[in-house]
Amino acid sequence: MNIKRRVFLGLALTTALTVPALVVSTDAKAADDDTIKIGVLATFEGAFTVLGEDGMRGAIMAVEEAGGETGGKKIELIKGSSDASPDSAVRAARKLVEQDGVKVLIGPLSGDEGLAVKDYAKTKPDVTFLNGTSAAQDTTLRDPAENFFRFSTDGAQWMAGLGDYAYNEKGYKTVATVAEDYSFPYTQVFGFMAEFCKAGGKVPSKSWVPIGTKDYSSVIAAIPDEVDAIYVALGGADGVNFLTQYQQAGGQAPLIGGSITVDQTVLGSKGKMHDVVIGTPSAGPIADNNDAPEWKAFVEEYKKLPDAFPSPSLFAHGYYVNMKAALMALDAVDADVSDGGKKLRETLAGLELDTPTGTVKLDANRNAVADMYLTEVAEGDDGNLYNKLVKVVPQVNQTLGIPEAEFLALGAVSRDNPSCE
Predict the structure, then answer these.
(1) 76-104: buried (b, 16+ CB within 10 Å) or exposed (e) per residue?
(2) Whole-prediction pTM value?
(3) CATH number for the domain that contains residue 218
(4) How many domains does the chain divide into?
(5) How far apart are alpha carbons 396 and 376 in whole angstroms?
(6) Is 183 helix (H, G, I), strand (E, B) or coil?
């Protein structure tokens, strides 16, 4: 994939991600008639910086694959930076839309950000928003925005198969949870517990921690001794800090991983946590050793990018999929958004997308239905950790196969919902 030099990566904020053959400009330029501006909003600040950087790699891969143009127009990427907080995401989105003039925006990355950007999208009906990897359930399930699309599924969908596997195959009957205190981990815990509790499991303890927590000693000390395993939904630096400190504290209970806890953005870190996570079951939108030719080709192209992980993270995958969907739809309408993006959004709503991880289509709320992957952490011959495929759970929808009215009656995810009672 050789990207044409006429593609621009406009750095609207800080932290340039250097990629060969991209012409880098420091500000958004006025769009020519033969140029389409696309904003990319991700976390380039704070505890999730490494996640945002890999998300950007995925977005760039999709642009490269398209040859740097769509609908006969050159693509100009403009970068917006957040720190995973809702306010920072809305500020970055507002700058991309209201100052830089983008009519298509890819992002954000984190859960609470998605809820906030969804609400902002409602105020800008002539702009088309596609998710990055933000996976809070209610970004699309409740009170959705008609101009917000998610081709990357939500965090409860990512858990498909894991609760049943933990109970019936691993033999874990009681599990404590440790997760960050915001909407995405609530969604992940919900997805895990929906199956685990139905199978007969119990969750006697939940610990919720702020993003950016550095000292987990009190959290580790509060985990009940009698639990069979600990479900951990912590990402980026938070995941690394917890896993390292758990190992140093002599923790013996086996772990169950939330999707971002055993993602390559964490597994790629060095340190003594290495032995703690081997054998950890998890689930999510990708499996590192997926044998599908499409995935293997995606991995090979990804590894050509600077500072790439041994395998793409779910963030690289999610931004790639959403950017690819945007470019396919733009190509179908000749990159014409002069009607306020109406034709573009009609095209996106009916799009069925072939991705490196299978076919993706949207439901009535513009949320993806896609294959999910049950995995276990293993060590490769090269010493790197990876998520080994255990099982593919095909075409998981947002209500996890439950009729929508019955699913909605379960209530919105929160610290206390669900419970095993």
Answers:
(1) bbbbbbbbbbbebbbbbbbbbbeebebbb
(2) 0.91
(3) 3.40.50.2300
(4) 2
(5) 19
(6) helix
